Design the sequence.
């Protein structure tokens, strides 16, 4: 078996971010892990441990970042064989415009 490092999310946040940044692939059962991986340009595979959890938030995030589907693995072993969803797209100008407009509205 491969020795797979596990990132402990209860460590100080700077250590968690350093651990994520120094990783080649993220396998995450959390949307937060996938978002951080995207932010650092690291491929990520969603691990769906519980089939009862709705996929809405994952679909919403992926569609909002220019991807039209959610691919997930059911285990770490399967995740290591799964191609990460690529194509993360972010329109920084639209985000900044929305933030500026939101700020002026309040």
Sequence:
């Amino acid at each position: 078996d491969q020795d797979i490092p596990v990132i402990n999310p209860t460590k100080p946040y700077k250590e968690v971010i350093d651990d994520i940044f120094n990783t080649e692939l993220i396998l995450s059962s959390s949307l937060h892990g996938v978002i951080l991986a995207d932010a650092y340009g690291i491929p990520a595979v969603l691990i769906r441990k519980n089939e009862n959890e709705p996929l809405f938030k994952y679909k919403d995030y992926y569609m909002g970042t220019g991807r039209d589907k959610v691919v997930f693995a059911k285990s770490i072993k399967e995740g290591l064989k799964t191609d990460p969803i690529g194509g993360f797209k972010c329109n920084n100008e639209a985000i900044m415009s929305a933030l500026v407009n939101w700020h002026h509205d309040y």
In short: Helices lie at 13-21, 31-39, 56-64, 76-81, 92-105. The chain is about 45% helix and 10% strand. The chain has a mean pLDDT of 84. Residues 92-105 form the longest helix (14 residues).
